[in-house]
């Protein structure tokens, strides 16, 4: 439990209300009760603000009066960021910090290097030559492959596999011949990787995940992929081999990025989009066929198959029109 005065003293913001109000938990705006603290991050939810029974709500200055009409509030420049930092403060205050430890069930190769402040969870495997940086946590059943490295202050969630072989085979007389994957995976500092995500080792050079990258659950990163600083990818994203993703990019859930493509810094890919070409300019990119009832979708899909024929016919019409215009000018 924290008092509002303690929260503002730790995180800043301007409190309107009694600093002695006690908060026993955090909650969404629509369901928060009398002992809970919530936040308004988007104007579209302001109707919920007036109805909320929260003890206090974090808002931006334009919503100060609306918030005061219902009770105490904390005014902050960025309520969502403030709430994020509040969750960190709350966790520090209410849950004891885990101590550096290697669980007895973990399997650590004698040639692996584990920082003294790292936490290695149950049933983890850290193979020969692998390195785990200071204050990094490997949760249960993480596998860190041979010669792979994880930097400092990283959180690797349960079931993550770092350094499995990349998908490389040469076809010879109908038989697939394995291409040995001789690179590794190098992960920077302050990276968080969601549960059951897989990051393949490079074929010759390394797969690179730079500082501050955030990967959600069930993300697949192919061999020799390079992901720039502070890029974030939502669940079920797939990145094929040798793609180069810039810094400060975002990739929505279920999106696919084909191999050997490059995305510039600041590129934002919508959910379920398939990226089939390189993108050289920052911005928002979407490639999704809209949802429709099945009968309409089938008709539209059939029409799409005819677009190349319609394009050719249009070019022919344009050419005839141009020719007719030229003849009219001459006459």
Would you spell out the secondary-structure blueprint of this structure?
Elements: E1 2-3, H1 4-11, E2 14-16, E3 22-23, E4 25-26, E5 36-39, H2 46-51, E6 56-59, H3 64-68, E7 72-75, H4 79-94, E8 101-102, E9 107-108, E10 113-114, E11 119-120, E12 125-126, E13 131-132, E14 137-138, E15 143-144, E16 149-150, E17 155-156, E18 161-164, E19 169-172, E20 175-178, E21 185-187, E22 192-193, E23 198-200, E24 207-209, E25 214-215, E26 220-221, E27 226-227, E28 232-233, E29 238-239, E30 244-245, E31 250-251, E32 256-257, E33 262-263, E34 267-269, E35 274-275, E36 283-285, H5 294-304, H6 307-330
Parallel strand pairs: 4-5, 5-6, 6-7, 8-11, 9-12, 10-13, 11-14, 12-15, 13-16, 14-17, 15-18, 16-21, 17-22, 18-23, 21-24, 22-25, 23-26, 24-27, 25-28, 26-29, 27-30, 28-31, 29-32, 30-33, 31-34, 32-35, 34-36
Antiparallel strand pairs: 1-3, 2-7, 19-20
**Which range does the strand content fall in?**
25-35%
**Fraction of helical residues:** 10-25%
Unreliable runs, pLDDT <50, ≥5 residues? Answer: none
- Give the biggest beta sheet: 10 strands, parallel
Assign the structural class, choosing from mainly alpha, mainly beta, alpha/beta, alpha+beta, or little secondary structure: alpha/beta
Distance between the termini: 90 Å
- CATH second-level architecture of the largest domain: 3 Solenoid
Number of domains: 3
Q: Which CATH top level class of the largest domain fits?
A: Mainly Beta
Number of strands: 36
- CATH-assigned homologous superfamily of the largest domain: Hexapeptide repeat proteins
* Main β-sheet, spatial strand arrangement: 8-11-14-17-22-25-28-31-34-36
Q: If you consult CATH, what is the topology of the largest domain?
A: UDP N-Acetylglucosamine Acyltransferase, domain 1
Count of discrete alpha- or pi-helical segments spanning 4 or more residues: 6
Mean pLDDT across the residues is 96
